[in-house]
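Q: Can I see a sequence and its folded structure?
A: Here is a first one.
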Amino acid sequence: MSSATNVQPIDEVKDPIQRKSTDLNKPQMPLIIGGLTIGAILMIYLMATQNSVQPLLLVIGLLLGYTLFHARFGFTSAFRRLASVGNGQALRSHLLMLAVAVTFFAPILAFGYSFFGGGVSGYVSPVGISLLVGAFLFGVGMQLGGGCASGTLYAVGGGRTVMFITLLFFIVGSTVGAQHLPFWTEDLPAFEPVSLATTTGFGYGGAWALSIALFGLIAWITLAVEKRKQPPKMAPKPSASGWKRIFRGSWPLFAAAVVLAILNALTLMIRGTPWGITSAFALWGSKVAQFFGVDVASWGYWQGANAAALETSIFADSTTVLNLGVILGAFLASAVGGLFKFTTITGRNATASVIGGLLMGYGARLAFGCNIGAYFGGIASFSLHGYIWGIMALAGTFIALYLRPKFGLSVPTSKDSFC
């Protein structure tokens, strides 16, 4: 696989902080003040106009975005490194994240109540053609678009200009996917949702033990692949020492994995469902289409429980609030690290972002979620569809390795070091 070097997406860009272990940029104080001001205004607005859940979710979103940026915690790059050269370091951080998540999710789902007294439910979705096609398309799309759903949000917050294009077409693709979803879910074959805890009869304790065993098996496979292929290791990133590392420099992937799992569990306890991202994209795009006279309310996707979202403010949508928090949290993290900077866009890079965004948006709707809602949230909820999503997205990644050089995007080789 040849390697192109003229364009690199955020999850594989040679970061400005990758110089010396103690060579950190100065904090960008005007941006920090501006970000905090925007956050405060948004918080006051939510407290004044929405229920008590929304301000809490904004804080959770801020912490998610801050964590994602500080650790450069990637899903796209983890899949690509494994598929291209057999490096499984980042994927093993996913496994730790999932292990911590199922440990928290098991008692929460078994108990069945949130902090505010409402019920809780995980993401358990059907397994069928829709899932297989959607996850595969998402896998291709995230490799062309330069980031997954969470990666797109934190890249936008960090100022990666081309990711604004990815986000725009992510929204378009998700909206079209919402319009087409009844065909994929009602007219094509699918099995009923399968929960390792309830469908199988294992219970949440048995499902937790089975999940931990599966994570261990996958980790062992990645180590075996690395032993055979001897891939390059991920290069260490500079960071401050001691408690200052919380604010300055890079976080270890494994520390971020634990934090993300805890924050997802808190999201489940606060709003009654796990962290998700892309349903908000379908809402945003549908509201824009509705503004221009499209009868989106007649779409099957917006019938039933989803119908109310079209008639209310987007700030009443908990996923929207989480997404805004992720963007703002990443912005603050980049400014604190002195790293916020708008970047240039090339024609081929922009084209890849358009195609990648469309594929991710459309694929996420078909697959009942993205790398967060379907993969992270699904597996954490003991749903079989989360595992199948990961397999199909990895298959899409293999195909995308052949497509990336056509758009000037790099493909890791055995001679590369990873940032």
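Q: Show me another, different protein.
A: A second, unrelated one:
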Amino acid sequence: MTDTHQVLIVGGGTGGLTVASQLLSRDDAPEVAVLEPADTHYYQPLWTLIGGGVFDKEESARPMGEVMPSGATWIQDAAAEVDPEGGTVTTRGGDTHGYDRLVMAAGIQIDWDGIPGLAASVGQPGTGVVSNYSYDTCETTWDAIQNFPKGGTALFTEPTTGVKCGGAPQKIMYLSDDAFRRQNVRAGSRIAFMKAKGSLFSSPPYEETLYDVVERKDIDLNLMTELTALEPSKKQATFQHLESGEEETIDYDLIHVVPPMSAPDFIADSPLSDEEGWVDVDPGTLQHTRYDTVFALGDNSNLPTSKTGAAIRKQAPVLVDHLMATTNDAASANGTYSGYTSCPLVTGYGKLVLAEFDYDKEPEESFPFDQTEERYSMYALKAYGLPRMYWNGMLKGRM
């Protein structure tokens, strides 16, 4: 064994760094190590607006060394195996690290190979295949939007699996509609949303607004319809209608693909996982249901809420509270996570619906006005306010 840490955090994304910062800011701060292989940290919520031509992609990136919390030990390697019985994590590099408390914040795995034809074509010139779900490809979405032909067909997909930010698959569609109108290519063109789930959005009050947006923008909505294959050389996409089982092949000029996603393999193959591969935690305390020294938050957990950075903002203090209670042998901790999540639903340039809701999909809102309405103020919050709050507040343990 290389060493043992009081708290070992697997993952240097939003969840991992937020928890590390909050732990280290305490008067009774434990020793903290963060296991993270990447050199760069990304503010991924900005990728939708990068795909829509609002920002350059470089604005979403910072060197990992600059955002790693002061006082944390950065282990620049990736987790390969977790042994909760032995209290160790083994890395791809072959090192084994022990822990007193383990925080799983490894994010979600994007399965680019899950759709035949996707991995080799996404972001490549001439294919029309784009995706905002990668730093390397998000700017190519804007390139494709700018070169969209008059009378063309633009398809936007969402898989059956859980995805990062459940609203992102449709936000870029609304921006594209606005862009096509500005470019005078929307008339006679088709925009279609091919969503493999049965509803437009998970929280009904906000879904009503989105149905109005879809109608206003004349978008062809196809629920229970999943992308199964691409033929980029022909610019054709094959979909399965999940209720009937029938398949349909559609010609496209642009297709924004949200790839299927899953729990990271090393988690799904570990004793920490539930039946679907996610880290199995109590929805109120974020403590593992079987291993008392293990906690999890964010995308790699099985918390029954949307996988968003805003959810982590409310999850992190609860996790820290319960983790430190077990460390200090306290009788109980005070925090309980309600399932709060937020999805800033961009419905066009300068328009946004700020959806905030709990486990029951009921609104849990922050502002004293009707948040189901499209507002410029909420768009400005997403575009200009939230990134600053993220870099200067959340990652530093101040929120």
